[in-house]
Amino acid sequence: MGLKLNYFSGDLGGTFSIIARCPETLALGVSVSSASIAVGSAVPHVEPDVGAIAVQGYTNFFHGVNGLRLLRSGLPPETVISILLECDQLREKRQISIVDSLGRKAAFTGGETLEWRGHIIGRDCVAAGNALISKEVLEAMVDEFEKSEGEWLAERLIRALEAGQEAGGDRRGHRSAALLVAEREPIHESRPIINLRVDLDREPIRKLRKIFEAYKRWLRLIR
Asked: What is the pTM of this model?
């Protein structure tokens, strides 16, 4: 398909994330936290009317870029993951989760990602993580996300991330967090995509919540 598959890889770092789609507004998004720094610059990938992707474990940024390109061509998430990993010599160190604009979902967790590792495909969401305290981190994230059905997708993703942290999160601690959400109808022309990041902090999810609350106040001012 003419893809340039660049296999430059990031740090092998523990991370937990949740990707999701709102069936009502058709918004797509990702929230993520990690013991590595600047997780928002590498793991989450979102495009309106296309899909949301989280690429973690031994992170390959270009899997996210190429994954969105493949989704844009109409391929389902399972096929996209297969194509991305087909020639990837480090596939067993990767973790990829995808939800597309139609609500189709798929995930892959390599056998060489850090324990505890795994993913859960829930209703309108996929939670994935590695180097976690336990499976309960992902279970808490999916449970919180599904309980908040009907609320704004960005809020649901933040709550899921907070629930994952409460359940223990990354067993090595937390240093960065991010929220990336694309609404089908942009909230404002100056901010068509919600892109909030904490790149280095002792309590990144708490800081992300603080930034998110300020962002909501700003949105009310410009509407």
From this structure: 0.92
